[in-house]
Write a structure and sequence with these properties.
Blueprint lengths: L1 H7 L7 H13 L6 H11 L12 H12 L8 H24 L35 E3 L8 E3 H12 L3 E4 L6 H12 L9 H24 L13 H15 L4 E6 L4 H7 L5 H8 L18 E5 L6 E5 L9 H16 L7 E8 H6 L1 H9 L11 E6 L9 H4 L16 E5 L3 H18 L3 E6 L17 H9 L3 H11 L5 H17 L37 H11 L10 H14 L7 H14 L3 E6 L14 E2 L6 H4 E2 L12 E5 L4 H13 L4 E6 L10 H8 L2 H5 L6 E5 L14 H6 L7 E3 L4 H13 L6 E5 L14 H4 L6 E2 L12 E5 L3 H12 L4 E6 L1 E3 L3 H8 L7 E9 L5 H10 L6 E7 L10 H16 L4
Parallel strand pairs: 4-6, 4-7, 7-8, 8-10, 9-10, 11-14, 11-15, 15-16, 16-18, 17-18, 20-21, 20-23, 23-24
Antiparallel strand pairs: 1-2, 3-9, 5-6, 12-13, 17-22, 19-21
Helix pairs in contact: 2-4, 4-5, 5-6, 8-9, 8-18, 8-19, 9-16, 12-24, 14-24, 20-21, 20-22, 22-28, 24-25, 30-33
Length: 940
């Protein structure tokens, strides 16, 4: 039957695409194809190895193409046809096995410590091929090279391509074009570099510089931490190749993020930092005049480096010891630079991230950063990742304790990034994969990963003794000559230089280090680049800089009309229709302005003035509490991109750009991204909004290490705004507190601004003030959820057209100052609870003052307000947070500075608690009543 079928079917008729499509149909539903084809495909599935999970169906599909090329041979017997077909399919499966699993037998470990685990699929015998088949000719399928070759040659080509000093992982990629590109790139050259003499000399010079610098520092500054690169010196050759190659293809800026390992080497030998400056840092000095400063292996740097394509600006980001947290910061900075250039594809700005092996897979920041990489609001056209894989991590050299995956790079498979493993002892192979990574990124605008398998010659830092934890590994390392020696010997063997010339490179570099200079000038000192960031206008300014943040009534009405105009035949949800109708009335002055409208007016007016606005959060388009409605959805269209309308993008032809993003569910990566973006975009209002304020807990590292301390440590200015919903409404421990106390604890040196507005107009003015003032500090807004729809907190139009942000708001009921015996001071929504309680009880001798800005604390404004109450003997701070939380302990001394002698400072609020809020509504109400009673009851 099979012989008859094959001789009369389309199998040998040149219709391979038809057969492939039929096979896809068979895989989806075997009953949907004709019986004769179903029998044939069933037999293919039963061939040895076909059911193995590691082997994809691509070889079987490829067999159709190859068999379709063969002429119909009716004279062949069915047995010989079947045997020939089985052998051919077996060869194609062997090729596929090497593509999928070849990296497991690649020569990647410079220390050669571990025996390679058997991979049966890489053995011809596994697929039914024997020694007798080695001389036979077979079709090579899609294997790049001769179409037909002997099995022996095919195996040799596969081993050279996939099991040499380069190991490739790319068959997990589902995009055929990307997968075939990697195949073509490496199979065409069999993963073997072919650099000319000049390039080889440059590589040797780079790794000589890397090794010599480390050894120089090791002897000059004995015992000082530097997190040496020794064992991974090929990184410097790779970075040089990347910078030069990127410049050659038109990249204008490169933003680099890395942790400690090899950082000083990259600073000097890649970015061109003068060794003399580095030596000063080792000696406890610094060229930067900063309030606190930071250790030398956290410091950033930037320079302009000449390349064949022109100068490229290279920046190394400042970073803390929290390792991978700098990664989304770098990507965010790259996105801002691309935005400034109008670089929508990422061709002009390239982010590069250097990782440690354990940190790369161990820290969740990378999962979040990868998850951001292909999204619309965070994509940068791909990032080049380099893992400095010293096979130890911190102290764990046994991978059973370091991860649950085979490779430390397996996390990158979540976004189908190609992964190029390479032996760091072969610097030419390292440069080869670097070139391929750059080409892949520039072509497909997607992340790509290089796994630089090396070792760590010394301990985690130079004070550690690694023999305590890795004795056998370090016995191997002690015998290793180093990548520079191996490569120099290789070039000497090739006759490209002499041993004396190799030694002279070391001597020349050491002599330059003795002078504190470079061997050669690698940076440009007089190059003036376009799109540079200038924070000069924001230095030395004060938070109280007078700024007009008002709009005229005519401007409000004009903006209101634009913000509520929708396209024809756009079907609004009834609720949204009512919101827009109300906003028209607000703009006309017929209704009080609510918080959603106040925010929207602030954004619109800034956009028209040329300030871009970027707003992100987990539900920012609509607003978590359904108050913003920045994105409108057509109720009759399914697709988001076709059925969405953003009024803030349609104000005028020359307005600044507006972007609102419903972000991924990862606060840490997103907030770090927005910090990096804001740091590189001083003329944009960049806002991160927490779905609930305490969700910021998941990004505490970003808050501690970047947002609140980046300026004092590194001199990095940032105008990032954080909106944190906050307020006690009986919603339990996780949806009440934004942890105000944590932010206040981090306040010093006017590093941030913390406000808790209680009126819609306050929100309007503080957002406009953030951009219109020549002052760039992070702004943290604790926004009440309840007040978004609370009538008394809405503002008349006059508060938009006059005044400004008020750090302190006096009592609106204006009690008789001569009768007031107690002044309540509070922040946020609790003001309305206090006001209502006073009104209900008919109290006339208690005044209520709001502190809307908690830091920088408005001492003068509050003192002036309190001084009005000339007979008051009690000043009471009232908060709805527990006593050990909220603002009380952080601002008590500030309140005392505003009081007159003999006045008593009292407290009213919830009792101290281990939890941010109670979980029972009844208990919440009881606590509220208790502290309101306390606030309204004068001391006897």
């Amino acid at each position: 039957m099979m012989q008859t079928f094959m001789s009369h079917s389309y199998l040998f008729g040149g219709n391979a695409p038809f057969i492939e499509e039929l096979y896809e149909q068979y895989l989806a539903d075997a009953q949907s194809v004709p019986q004769e084809w179903r029998d044939y495909f069933d037999k293919l599935q039963q061939l040895p190895g076909s059911a193995d999970r590691d082997i994809p169906r691509a070889p079987i599909e490829q067999s159709f193409i190859q068999l379709a090329k063969q002429p119909r041979l009716a004279t062949r017997s069915a047995a010989s046809e079947s045997a020939s077909m089985k052998k051919q399919v077996a060869v194609l499966k062997l090729i596929s096995a090497y593509r999928v699993l070849g990296s497991r037998h690649a020569n990647l470990d410079p220390l050669k410590r571990m025996d390679l685990n058997p991979v049966p699929e890489l053995e011809p015998s596994y697929h039914g091929l024997t020694d007798a088949d080695m001389a036979l000719q077979f079709d090579c399928g899609s294997l790049v090279g001769p179409e037909r070759d002997s099995l022996a040659n095919i195996v040799a080509r596969l081993k050279q391509t996939y099991c040499s000093n380069v190991g490739l992982e790319y068959m997990h990629i589902t995009q055929s074009e990307q997968k075939h590109w990697v195949q073509q790139r490496f199979e065409s050259i069999r993963s073997t570099p072919s650099f000319d003499q000049a390039k080889k000399a440059r590589i040797l010079k780079q790794i000589t510089a890397a090794e010599t610098l480390e050894r120089y520092l090791h002897t000059k500054y004995v015992g000082q931490k530097r997190f040496s690169l020794e064992g991974g010196e090929s990184l410097i050759a790779a970075m040089d190749h990347l910078v030069q190659g990127a410049g050659a293809v038109g990249v204008q800026e490169m933003v680099i993020g890395m942790a400690h390992r090899g950082r000083l080497n990259v600073l000097v030998n890649t970015l061109g930092k003068r060794p003399a400056e580095l030596f000063s840092e080792f000696e406890g000095k610094s060229t930067m005049d900063l309030p606190s400063g930071d250790v030398k292996y956290h410091m950033g740097f930037s320079s302009d480096i000449p390349t064949p394509g022109g100068p490229i600006h290279v920046s190394l980001a400042f970073n803390p010891s929290h390792l991978e947290i700098v990664n989304p910061v770098v990507v965010g900075s790259a996105r801002a630079r691309q935005q400034r250039r109008g670089d929508r594809t990422g061709d002009q700005v390239l982010p590069v991230l250097l990782h440690g092996d354990a940190a790369f897979i161990g820290l969740g920041t990378n999962q979040g950063t990868f998850n951001l990489s292909q999204t619309r609001g965070y994509g940068v056209g791909g990032t080049v990742h380099i893992v400095i894989n010293n096979q130890i991590g911190f102290t764990t050299s046994d991978t059973r304790d370091a991860r649950s995956t085979l490779y430390c790079t397996d996390i990158a498979k979540m976004i189908e990034a190609p992964i190029f493993h390479v032996n760091a002892d072969d610097p030419e192979a390292v440069c080869l994969v670097m070139q391929a990574a750059l080409e892949f990124r520039m072509k497909f605008h997607k992340d790509v990963v290089i796994d630089l398998v090396c070792f760590r010659k010394l301990g985690h830092n130079e004070g550690d003794d690694p023999m305590l934890t890795q004795p056998m590994m370090y016995k191997k390392i002690a015998k290793h000559p180093g990548a520079r020696k191996l490569y120099a010997d290789r070039l000497i063997g090739e006759g490209l230089l002499s041993a004396a010339e190799a030694d002279e490179l070391i001597k020349a570099y050491r002599a330059a280090l003795d002078k504190g200079e470079h061997v050669e000038q690698t940076t440009l000192t007089d190059f003036k680049r376009s799109f540079a960031i200038d924070y000069g206008a924001f230095k030395g300014t004060h938070w109280a800089h007078p700024t007009d943040t008002t709009l005229s009534a005519g401007e409000v009405q004009r903006l209101g009309e634009k913000l509520t105009r929708i396209p024809e035949e756009f079907k609004l949800h009834p609720t949204v229709d009512k919101v827009l109708a109300a906003r028209r009335e607000m703009a006309a002055g017929n209704q009080a302005i609510d918080w959603g409208m106040a925010e929207t007016l602030a954004y619109g007016s800034l956009l028209e003035k040329g300030y871009g606005v970027r707003l992100s959060g987990e539900d920012s388009g609509r607003g978590t509490f359904s108050h913003r409605h920045a994105v409108l959805h057509d109720q009759n269209r399914e697709r988001w991109d076709q059925g969405a309308y953003v009024p803030l993008r349609h104000l005028s032809d020359n307005q600044a750009h507006f972007l609102v993003i419903d972000s991924i569910l990862n606060e840490e990566a997103v907030l770090a991204f927005e910090y990096g973006y804001s740091s590189s975009a001083p003329d944009e209002l960049v806002i991160w909004e927490a779905q609930f304020g305490d969700f910021g807990n998941g990004a505490q590292v970003v808050i501690d290490q970047f947002i609140t301390s980046g300026e004092t440590k590194w001199g990095r200015y940032c105008g990032l705004t954080m909106i944190l919903p906050h307020g006690y409404d009986g919603q339990g421990p996780e949806h009440s507190s934004a942890r105000l106390e944590r932010y206040l604890q981090l306040c010093a040196e006017h590093n941030v601004q913390i406000v808790m507005p209680s009126e819609a107009a306050q929100m309007f003015h503080v957002l406009r003030r953030q951009m219109l003032r020549p002052y760039r500090k992070p702004l943290i807004i604790l926004m009440s959820k309840r007040l978004l729809r609370y009538k008394d907190s809405m503002s008349p139009l006059e508060q938009i057209t006059s005044g400004g942000f008020r750090p302190v708001i006096g009592d609106p009921d204006q009690p008789d100052v001569k009768k007031v015996k107690r002044v309540l001071v509070c922040s946020g929504q609790v003001f309305y609870d206090l006001q209502n309680a006073r009104k209900e009880r008919g109290i006339k001798d208690i005044a209520i003052v709001r502190v809307e800005q908690l830091y920088p604390f408005p001492t003068e404004e509050l003192k002036a307000e309190l001084d009005k109450y000339i007979v008051a003997r009690e000043i009471m701070w009232v908060q709805e947070e527990p006593k050990n939380q909220g603002a009380w302990h952080q601002i008590r001394h500030r309140l005392e500075n505003c009081m007159r002698p003999k006045q008593a400072l009292l407290y009213a609020g919830r009792p101290s608690s281990a939890s941010p809020a109670v979980g029972y509504m009844s208990k919440h109400v009881a606590q509220l009543k208790a502290f309101l009673d306390e606030a309204m009851t004068l001391s006897k």
